Amino acid sequence: MSALERPFDPGLQPERTALAWQRTGLSIALALLVGARLVAHLGAAWAPALAAAGIIVITVLLTIGHRRYARVHRALTAEPPQKLPGAAALLSWVIATTALGCLGAIAIGIYIVTR
């Protein structure tokens, strides 16, 4: 059994947290695609570019999240336990999701005003 397969605790809290981040990322990706489809249906030519940029950002964030989980898991299962990594990955999630939400609201607002 590899180090990443061995759970740190019986409640699997780090694993549940990692899965929650994955669900969040996939939900945002789905919302981006549906939103781009809706905006494209309304006639906006920039919708595919917006969806592609969002999907790239979500892919990067999911990769960061997976790597952070692996680092935390290795730190918790090491003998002796090591210091946990910082929260920079979590901060990147907060900034990116806030920015994506704001950009989406601005893009829809611009579209509605110019329509």
Automatic annotation (TrEMBL):
<feature type="domain" description="DUF202">
    <location>
        <begin position="9"/>
        <end position="75"/>
    </location>
</feature>
<keyword id="KW-0472">Membrane</keyword>
<dbReference type="Pfam" id="PF02656">
    <property type="entry name" value="DUF202"/>
</dbReference>
<keyword id="KW-1133">Transmembrane helix</keyword>
<feature type="transmembrane region" description="Helical">
    <location>
        <begin position="86"/>
        <end position="113"/>
    </location>
</feature>
<keyword id="KW-0812">Transmembrane</keyword>
<protein>
    <recommendedName>
        <fullName>DUF202 domain-containing protein</fullName>
    </recommendedName>
</protein>
<dbReference type="InterPro" id="IPR003807">
    <property type="entry name" value="DUF202"/>
</dbReference>
<feature type="transmembrane region" description="Helical">
    <location>
        <begin position="46"/>
        <end position="65"/>
    </location>
</feature>
